[in-house]
Amino acid sequence: MNAIARIQTDDAQPIAGIGHNGGPAPNAFEKAEAEVSKLYEEASLWLDGAKVDSQELADGIANLLNMLRAAEKAADAARTAEKEPHLKAGRAVDAQYKPVLERAKLAADACKKALAPWLQKVEAEKAAAAEAARREADEKRKAAEEAIRSRDAANLEETAAAEALLKEAKKADAAAKKAEKDGAKAGNSTIGRAVSTRTIYRAEVTDARAFARHVWANHAAELNAFLDTLAARLVSAGSRDLPGVTVHTETTVV
Fold this sequence. Notes:
single chain; 254 residues; mainly alpha; 3 domains; 70% helix
């Protein structure tokens, strides 16, 4: 008796009736696990590395493949059925909280819109102050550097004056750095985080050719990966004559 015949014979065995001492009936997962395990063991007998050299052997393996497909489909259906109550419960929770979350987001968005003009005004003022502080720091640094270059190293008074200018330049630089990091904020920091602004940069390609040349020169790996994906999609959709693309033909078992 071959392996497929053994499977069919095993499947034909009668199921124990009520009163049988075999324990509780297996649940859906146990049934699926048992069926797949049985077929997996059969597959290990058939697929021992030997080549398929007869129609009978090919038919037997094909039949086993179809039985495995059916077992996989049944197991997946059981998984879906077992998971559905949990998904339904999750959807019910989402539905319950959805209006609450939407109201919170609506009010939060209104707060942001109300704060935006004020924070933008304060941000602009702080940016102007930071720019002025940076100019002052740069001027003091240049003055200190010039004083150090032109001083007479043997003149203690000139050296002390140059060192004083250098200290002032360092203080001005520290003040400028602090001002550059200081952004507009609102809110009591003890209640969550302070509300602030954030600069967002949005890209818009206005010259595709120029950008493509830049990408080819500086990001060739990412471009090649994108082109591979695009070529695969086009070939899958039926394209066979694409410039620069070799379409390989492979035969797979379905």
